[in-house]
Amino acid sequence: xxxxxxxxxxxxxxxxxxxxxxxxxxxxxxxxxxxxxxxxxxxxxxxxxxxxxxxxxxxxxxxxxxxxxxxxxxxxxxxxxxxxxxxxxxxxxxxxxxxxxxxxxxxxxxxxxxxxxxxxxxxxxxxxxxxxxxxxxxxxxxxxxxxxxxxxxxxxxxxxxxxxxxxxxxxxxxxxxxxxxxxxxxxxxxxxxxxxxxxxxxxxxxxxxxxxxxx
Length: 215
Ligand SMILES: [Ca+2]
Ligand SMILES: [Ca+2]
Ligand SMILES: [Ca+2]
Description:
Distance between the termini: 10 Å
Low-confidence stretches: 6-20
Order of helices and strands: HEEEEEEEEEEEEH
Largest sheet: 6 strands, antiparallel
Bound molecules: calcium ion
Helix content: 10-25%
Shape: globular
Number of strands: 12
C-alpha cells in the first residue's frame, strides 16, 4: 500500500509540473502602454474609458479586462475623427515566453482593429494576424473585429521561447466613441519528454493498483 501511495504522489507531481509552469493572463486595463497611430508617437499609459451600451461588457471571459484608449474616447469623452488609412492608437503587450506556450486571445474594438505580433522587442519581423474590417453596421464593424458581443477576433497561437510583442491597433471609422478590449492567457505546452514522464507515472499507478487488487 505504501508503494501505491508513493507512485501516486510521483504521478501527481508530474502532472502539476506540466500544467502550472509559465502561465499568465493578458488583459486590457492593467497598466498597458498605448501610442497614437502616427509616426514618432511615444508609448504612454493607456486609460480606462466608459463603455458604450452596445459594446461587449467589461470583464469578458472573467479575467478582468476593461475597455481602454489613449484618451477619454468612451461615452461622455472626446470624439475622434474617422480615418481608415491609419489606426487611431495602438496598445502593446510584451510576452516573455520561457517555455513553448499556447496563447489564446480575444479582441473587441470600436470601430475595428488590426492585430499583429512580433518576435523580439522592436523587431521588424512582424506577423499581421488580422487587418481592419471597414464594413460598418449599426454599432462599429459588421462582424470581426467589431465591438459587439460575438464580434471579437479570436486567436490560438503557438509561441516559441523569447520575447514577443502583441500589438492591437484601433481604427475610428464610424464616428462617436472608440476603444479596445482584449483578454487572453498563455500557458506552457508539455514537451514530449515531460509527457512521456507523465505517461510513465500513470502507467506505474495502474500497475500498482492491479497489484494491490490481486494481493
Ligand atoms: Ca495588459
Ligand atoms: Ca457591429
Ligand atoms: Ca466609433
